[in-house]
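Minutes, project huddle
Topic: does the predicted pose make sense with nicotinamide-adenine-dinucleotide bound?
PN asked that the exact inputs be recorded in the minutes so nobody has to dig through chat later. Recorded below.
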Amino acid sequence: MKILVTGGAGFIGCNFVHYMLEQHPEDGIVNLDLLTYAGNLESLADVESAPNYSFVKGDIADREFIMELFQKENFDVVVNFAAESHVDRSIVDPGVFVRTNVMGTQVLLDAAKEFGVKRYHQVSTDEVYGDLPLDRKDLFFTEQTPLHTSSPYSASKAGSDLLVLAYCRTFGLPVTISRCSNNYGPYQFPEKMIPLMLTRALADESLPVYGKGENVRDWLHVKDHCAAIDLILRGGKVGEVYNIGGHNERTNLEVVRTILAALGKPESLIHFVADRLGHDLRYAIDPKKIEKELGWKPQYSFDTGIRQTIDWYLEHKEWWQHILDGEYSNYFNRMYKL
Ligand code: NAD
Ligand code: TYD
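Predicted holo structure (tokens), as shared on screen:
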């Protein structure tokens, strides 16, 4: 199979490239990425000369470029990770989220349709379902939960999901969609909660917890997400949505305390700051469908996954220090008003 991976220089995309090259050396992978602030080729340095891997710099929303690439490469499968992915940035500047996540997806769908791609997979998020109340632990997101978005980020992801399903129904494009819960693991950009807290705690800097830290996220190790997408590509039914999550609900405060305890740092580093606008209360996935239909099961519990992740950040200081030393420091100071 020849697979186009878009956004493969980002957090989940680069983990997916590594995963696929290990698991399926018979497949060819072309990684297309615009290398925005979130794209980092250092995450792929170890595979850049692999014979079945190549990188192309480009924009999924650039129609002419995308059409030429599809004509040249004759892809069997497209896996679309490329997106603007940070809720806080979507609150400051929603426009680029609509451009990349909605319009970029539409360009990819047109190209997949025109060049007869055999499977188009959209990497989506549980955030399209909105949030659940904190006091109803019995409620979970299923594939039937109505879309009910809160942030410009989640609204743009829901918009792209609807386009993907429309291209299936109207044009018969063979699509699948996965909606995963919050990921963590190696190569995550340090604007996201877990690597942000981890890298700041290591430097004895304050940890900005929004509101009271009571919001709940359902954490999944990125490798378990990659394995789920691989299973969907090979066995998932066309036109179907698959939720992915491992029942690892934690309040933000619990996660931050776990990180501090693992690093031997004091809880006095925790600083409660103004809440995020429109902050979703709780996410929790019901993964029964992918478990039953495709036999997917996560390999990591939150305890083993967070330990592996902490060790990775301890062993790869250079990777994240390059980011902290670059343009990101301006973003952090602006966002957290330092
Ligand atoms: P990320 O921000 O780390 O990476 C996004 C990548 O897309 C970057 O490499 C960036 O350069 C690239 N990109 C951005 N705009 C582009 C464009 N116009 N053309 C080509 N490339 C472009 O994001 P991530 O956390 O790896 O998320 C990947 C996908 O998974 C996203 O679609 C996101 O919505 C989804 N998702 C993320 C999570 C999570 O917890 N991080 C959970 C569920 C789903
Ligand atoms: P984040 O990693 O941005 O993922 P998402 O908003 O997509 O779930 O945030 C995870 C949780 O952590 C979310 O409830 C917001 C919270 N959070 C903080 O408390 N402080 C921070 O500095 C950040 C970035 C997030």
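Observations noted during the meeting:
- Residues 2-188+219-249+281-302 form a domain with the Rossmann fold fold (CATH 3.40.50.720).
- Residues 87, 182, 192-193, 196, 208-210, 215, 217, 252, 276 surround thymidine-5'-diphosphate (ligand 2) (CB under 6 Å).
No decisions taken; revisit at the next huddle.
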